[in-house]
Amino acid sequence: MAAVMTIEEMRRGLTWRKNLDKVFVILGLLVLFACLGLLAILFFDLVRDGASRFGWDFLTQFPSRKAERAGILSAWVGTSMIMFVTGLVALPVGVAAAIYLEEYAPKNWFTGIIEINVTNLAGVPSIVYGLLALGLFVYQFGFGQSVLSAGLTLALLILPIVIVATRESLRAVPKAIREAAYGLGATRWEVTKDHVLPYSTGGILTGLILGLSRAIGETAPIITIGALSFIAFLPPSPVSGEFPFLNLEWLRSEFTAMPIQIFNWVSRPDQAFQANAAAAGAILLGMTLLMNGIAIWIRYRFRKKINW
Amino acid sequence: MRKGAFASLAYRKNRDRVIEFLLLMAALVAVFTTLAIVVILFYESSFFFERVSIKDFLTDTMWTPLFADPRYGILPLVSGTLTVTFVALLVAIPLGTIIAIYLSEFANHRVRETVKPILELLGAVPTVVYGFFALLMVTPFLQKLIPGLPGFNMLSAGLVIGLMIVPYVASVSEDAMRAVPRYMREGSYAMGATKLQTALRVVVPGALSGIAAAYILGISRAIGETMVVAIAAGMQPTLTFNPTEPAATITAYIVQVSLGDLPHGSIGYQSIFAAGLVLMLMTLVFNVLGFFLTRKFREAY
Lengths: 308, 301
Description:
By secondary structure, chain A is mainly α. Chain A is 73% helix and 0% strand. With 301 residues, chain B is mostly helical. Chain B has two domains: 3-51; 75-300, MetI-like (MetI-like fold), CATH 1.10.3720.10. Chain B contains twelve helices and no strands. Chain B has helices spanning 9-51, 54-59, 75-106, 109-124, 127-145, 154-178, 182-190, 195-206, 208-224, 227-232, 250-259, 267-300.
C-alpha cells in the first residue's frame, strides 16, 4: 500500500467500498428470494401435478392398486389419530418438564444434566427415535405396530420443541408478578398455576402447534415402527353408540399415515401414482404451512396483547 | 372465593411437594429417553456383533446383509452419508451465511421480523415432500445439465437437503452475529469501515464460534436426514464418493429394511440397530461439539 494517498485515491477507494456494500445487499436479497422462490415453486408444482386428483373422492377412498381410484382416507384418519395421541402426551409432559426446569429446578449439576439431555434430544435424528420405538414400544412393551406406538414416538420427538417453547414463554413473565403473588402468601404451585401459566398460554400453544406440524410430516420414525402403506380399512371408531361409549381399540390398531402414503406413491415407477403423491403432498404441505401460520399468528397476537 | 384459598397451609405445602415431584418426573422423561435410546441401540446391536466381528463391520467394503452371501461392512453406508452431507453443506453453508449476514447487519427490523418466520417454513416442509421434489423435479432438471445422470443420485438428494437446512444454518448464525455487542461495530464504523467490512472483519470473526456451531449442527441434521435420500438417492449401498452415482446412506438402509417384513430377532432386524448406533455416534460427536461452541459464544460477551 502506498504510504501517502491522494484525496482522489481515497475517494475512489471509498466509492468502491460503498459499491461493494450495495453488491452484497443485492446478493443477500437474491439468495433470500431464491430460497423463498423455490418454496413457492415447490408448492405450485405439487398443486399442478396433483390437480387432477383433488376432489371429494380422493379424501374418501381407500388406497387402491388403480391410481385413479386410490384415495387417502385411511392415511388422513391415521394421521389424525396419531396427532391426537402425540398432542395428548407431549403437551402435559412438555409443559410440566418446562415448569420444573424454569420455576422449580435448583441450579446444580443434576439440573444441568436434564438441560443437556433436552438440547441433545433436539439433535437426535428422527429415525433413531424410530429405532427406539421399535425396540421399546413395539417389542419390549408389546404395543405392536400400532397407533399408540406411533403417537408416543412422535410425542418423544417433539418433546424438546414443546419444552423449549414453554420455557421461553415462562421466562418472559416478569419476576414482579411472581413476587407479588408470593407476597400475598401463595405457594410456588399457586404462583405458577394462577399467575405465570395464564400469561404463557400463547407461547405454549405456539410451541405445541409447531411441534405437531413437525410431527405430522415425520415419515422415517413411523416407517421404522412398521406403518403399513396399504391399509384398506379404518381403525375402530373411538366413539361407539353403546355403553361405555368410548372405545380404546383404535390405539392398538395397525395404521398408515399421510407421509407414509406419499412415500409409497412416490416410490412407484407408474406416473399415475405420482399425481396421487403430488396431491397428497400438497395437502400435507398445506396443513404444515397452515399450522405454522397459526403458530406465528398466535405468537404475534399474544405479544401485542400483553404489555407488562 | 375459591375453595383452595381456605385450605390449610400444611395441606397446600404438601400439595406443592407432590406437584414438584410430578414435574420432576416429567423433566426426567428427557433423561430416560436418552438412556433408552442408548440402551436399546447397544442392546439390540450386541446380538448383531455376536455374529459379526467389529473388524469386519468397520473394514469390509460391502454391505449386503439381506443377500444370500451376506457381507457386513458399514463403509459403503458411511461413504454415502458423508457424500450427501458434503453436497448439502456446499449449498447450506454459503447460502445460510449470506442470509445470516444480510439479516443481521443489513436488513432493518421490519424486514428481519417478516422474513425470518417465512424462511423457517423452508425447514418445516415435510421431508417426504422434499423427497418428491428431489426425485421428480430436481433430478430431471439436473439430467438436462449433466447428461447420463442416473434417475437416482446423491447429488439431487444432497442439494435438496442443503436447501432444507439453509434456514437452520442462517438462524443459528444470525443469533451468534447479533450477540456481538454494538460497540464493536461502532468502533469499526468510526475507523471508516463500511457495513460490509464491519460485517466480514469484525462481526463474523467475533461470532465465529457461534457460526461454527451453526455449521456443525447443520452437518448433524444432514447426516440424520432420511426420507430425501431414501426417495431420491436409490438404495444400493455402494462405496463411492461420487455424488452423481446412486448410493445408500445409513438412514436409507434403515428405511429400506423397515419397509420389508423382517422377523424380530433376525440378523436383518439387528443390523438396523447396528447401523443406527453408528448414525447416533456420528451425530452425537457433532451435537456435543455444537453444544460447547454455542455455549462459548454465549459466554464470550
